[in-house]
Amino acid sequence: MSNPVKVQLLLPLLVLSLAMSGCGFSKKDKGEELETDEQELYLEAQNSIRSANYSTAVGQLELLESHFPFGAYAEQAKLDTIFSYFMQSDFESAGAAAETFIEAHPQHQNVDYAYYLKGLASYESNRGFFDRFLGAPEYMRDVSNARRSFGEFKEFIEKFPNSLYAKDAQLRMVHLRNIIARSEISIAEFYLTRDANVAALKRASAVIEEFPKSDAVPDALAIMVEANHKLGLDKSADDSLRILTLNFPDYPGFNANGELVLDYASNLEDKSFLSMVSFGLLGNKPLPPPLRTTTADTSIEP
User: Residues 25, 59: contact at Cβ < 8 Å?
Assistant: First the structure.
């Protein structure tokens, strides 16, 4: 929000004069007169956003939408509303507003921003889950919300691979992928400690099949070695060990003699999750939506 946000000229000045002909138009708002024009109301909302008064901005933007539903700033106001909800940590409202915008304007030039913020709202709503994930392993048994966020980012990237926000979404997907895969590993390890070897094998295999690029793959292979061995499936155990040895020769489960030593009795809290929080993304804020309307020669300065 530190750079000027310029309004793109899309229609001739004749259309501009028609669009702005409602200047000074008054309507009732909860019994009170609204005596302002569309542009002025939008500029007030922008000032609120720049001052981080997001709750006030939401009210102003909703007022603008209700009084000028077909105006030059109507669609932009909807994007700004998503952003403002997000910035005041109302992730549920941000996600709902993004979904509404996508349904109403599937071909809008900035609909990629709505998809991105939809996924980002789900991602941030999981932050409490992620915090508990690092300190309380029992919470790792339900990663449904993380899977939802992963799916939303995946849909966004598939639809808009060249979007300005695609790179950030990809990095967040890496983070989510490792979270989900590590959760599956923790469950597989739990099963091994209870000699539920078939269940452990299924969980480990799922990690390799669904998240082959996750940092949990070496652990999944090690679990497959032990689970297959306990089940008397020596050939499968040897195959898994061979793959682990060839692809991850520095795996910490190997001792000085190159032998695989497995121990799943240790506390999962002691494991390092640095690779899952090393992207420098968790504290980032999204960019404000790009401003494009059908008005002309209007620059919004910070």
Answer: no
